[in-house]
Amino acid sequence: MDGDGFMERKSILFNSTTRIDPLALASADYPIGTQRKNVLLSIVAGFYYTTGEIASYETLQGADQGYSTLGSDMADVGEEDLLECLHKAAESAADVSAEAQWQQNMADRLLTDFQTDDPDQIGPPIPREYFLR
């Protein structure tokens, strides 16, 4: 990928980060365990995890051109952060056990429908409608 494409992606990432960081800061305004705090933390953790995974994939594919697009707060995000995101999302639901069950059912479906032998391979985009079934 050419340098311009990389800089465009870096610009998109920077603009997204400047929009998500206030959510992270705003979560400090709410007491631990409140629905609003859990929603905000879930959004931030999900964004950081997804961004980190995309950057890792680009590095594996050589598309990053040797430049880092992530700050250390995103580069160090892993599966435990994804689990925290899902946990906070469930805690923010009106019916915590129903949300946790939906998450488990969705994970099972994704593993069945999109199984791969190569965990470093990113498959085709999954349409939004898939998650609404």
Short description:
With 133 residues, this protein is mostly helical. The chain has one domain (3-132). It has six helices and no strands.
Can you count the helices?
6
Strand residue content: under 5%
Biggest beta sheet attributes: none
Helix content: 55-70%
Shape descriptor reads flat
How many domains make up the 3D coordinates? 1
Which spans of ≥5 residues are poorly predicted at pLDDT below 50? none
In total, the number of strands is 0
* Gyration radius, rounded: 17 Å
- Average pLDDT figure: 76
Straight-line distance between termini:
36 Å
Task: Explain the overall architecture.
The protein is flat, with a radius of gyration of 17 Å. The chain has 6 helices and no strands. It is an all-alpha fold. The protein has one domain.
Outline the fold blueprint.
Blueprint: H1 3-26, H2 35-61, H3 72-75, H4 79-92, H5 96-113, H6 128-132
List keywords for this structure.
mainly alpha, 69% helix, 133 residues, flat, single chain
